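Subject: Protein record for review, amino acid sequence with C-alpha cells
Why sent: The fold of this protein is of interest and is recorded here as C-alpha cells.
Enclosed: The protein record, placed directly beneath this head.
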Amino acid sequence: MTRNLLADRGAYVVGIGLHRYQRRSDKSYVELGLEAVRAALGDAFGDPVEAWPNVEVAITGTALLGMAPSRVMLARLGASGLAIHQVENASASGSTAVAQAALSVSSGQTDVALAVGLDKPEAWRVAASSAGIPSLEGGLVAPFTHFALLASRYQREFGVSDEEIARVAFKNHRNGAKNPYAHRQKERTIEEIMQDPISGSLTRLQCCPVGEGAAAVVVASADAIEKFGLDPARCPRIIGSVSRSQGFLEPGADADSALTVDTARRVFEQARVGPSDIDVLEVHDAFSVEELFYLEAMGFCGSGEAARLLAEGAWDIGGRCAVSPSGGLLSMGHPLGPTGTGQIVEIARQLRGEAGPRQQPEARYGVAHMVGLGAVCVMHILERGQP
C-alpha cells in the first residue's frame, strides 16, 4: 500500500495571500505575484522580509507566463538561495503547486514551502496542437460549446431547466459580491444571468472570466509551527492530496466528471472523511453546469439531484455545504495559474473562521477541486487547525 505521508508527518497551511483577480492591467506579473507572496508571508510570520529566509522551496504554478518566471520575481524578496520549481498543469497549475509544496513538507524534505499561482492572460499555446495527432473535431468545438452540449444531455435526462442551471451562477455571483478579491463583485438577478446567450443554455454570466491575478500559500510542518511560535488554530492541516489523469472512458462519457469520480474516491479514502463531512467546497465551475456535474461526481448527492438541492439552499453559505463561497470561477474568476492556489486560500480562511460575510458556520473540513486540460484532476482536503 502507498504510504500516506500527510498522515505520517503532516503539512499545514500557515499563511495565505492574494492579489485580486481582475481584467488584464499594466501591472507586471512580478507585481501581481509579490503582492500575494508578501501577504502570505506576513499572514504566517508577521514580517515578510524577516520571514523570507525561512522558506526552503518555492513552487510556482503558471499556465501562460513561459520559461523561468520565478527567479526574477522572488529575487525581489532577497537572494536566499532557496530551491525554485515551476509547474504547468493547465487550469490545475496552482493546485499542482500546492500538491508539490505539501509533498515537500510531508516527506520531510523541507519544513517551510511556498506555493504560488500566477498568470496574466497572454497568448495561449496548447502543446497538443503541435503533437502531430489531429483531433476528431478539428478544434471546432469551443469549451463553452462542449459544456453546453453536456448540459443539454443532462437537462433531457433529468428534466433540469435552463433557469435551474442559471441558479448556479446566481448563487456564485452573490457570493463573489462579498469577496474583495473577486474578479466579478456584483450580485446579479436570474434575469440578468439568463441574458446574452453564448451557446445552448449557457450565457455570458454563466461562463468564467479569464483575467490576471496571483495567490500564495505557505505550507509548513508541525515542527515549523512550534519553532516559529505560530497559532495552531490558524493552521489548517492538509489531510488529502490526490492528482489523477484521464483513464479509459466509454464512448460518450464526460471525461471531467469521470475523472472527478476517480479522484474524489481516492482523496476521501486518503483523508478518511466522506462528502457528508465536508462543510466547504471550492469547485471547478468554469461553466455553471459544471458545479452540478461535479457535486454528483464527488458523491455529495445522487445523479440528477444537485439542481433540486441547489434550489432548496443546500449549497448556500449556511446550508449543508457551502459550495464556492469565494464566488467560484464564475465570480472569483479563473486566471488559470492562480485559481487552484486561490481555492486553498479560501478554504483556509473558512476553516479559520475568518471569511466574514462569506463564512460557513462551524466549518471543519474543506475540499478544493480543479480539472485541467489533459485531462487532469487535482483535489485537496483540509481540516480545521487544532488549538
